[in-house]
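REVIEWER CHECKLIST
Item 1: Sequence provided? yes
Item 2: Single chain? yes
Item 3: Sequence as submitted:
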Amino acid sequence: MKRLAVLSVERRRSAPAPVLTLDVVESGTGRVIGDSWNDPREPPEAGVADVEPGDVLFGKLRPYLGKVLRAHATAYASTELLCLRPQHEVNSKWLAYCMLSGPVIDWAVATSEGTKMPRTSWDRLGTFSLLTPAPRQQRAIADFLDAETGRIDALIAKKRQLRLSLEEWEQGAMIDAVGDWRLVRTVSLRQLQTLVVTGPFGTQLAAAEYTSGHVPVVNPVHIQRGRIAPRRM
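Item 4: Structure as written out by the authors:
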């Protein structure tokens, strides 16, 4: 992969710009968490590299998390992220999808050092062999994956909305059936403990211990399909 991109490690700019760290990159999605792109900051004196539009950032720390991001604007990247600048004939979107792919992630994990906080490096990761289509095909692949990803995201959003609607309907149905519990004075289970009596554990009451005209005794045999069967008591 070293022929596809070069590693950017220098900081030449000093103007405020978003500072991208490993924590703000989602795992496996290629997205940023929150509003980090709209949060320009003064760059630290050290520990960051200039990011240009089209650069691909790859999380080298715990690479199994699959934290990859394609930059759409200038920014700064912390040293936890490999800042890869695609070569002239390499489509940056295509490269980002490649870095998110299973084989590349697996290779990054295989080339990592350390057990608690494993990390890879561009020297090791860059030795991965990758078939490189022509630039036109790269764009076609990236456009296709963009469209499919957008379609899947729309389906996920629709499913989430349906689930929320179902929860609202269930709550409304419960209120219609038993009233709005939020308007009823409630008590804690601790306040009810004197009203609840349990029988002996591990044994059964003898037939002679049952009498009529007193408080009913409920045994497991009296519970059928989630209800107490009074005729059997």
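Item 5: Key structural point noted by reviewer: The first strand starts at residue 5 and ends at 8.
Item 6: Recommendation: ____
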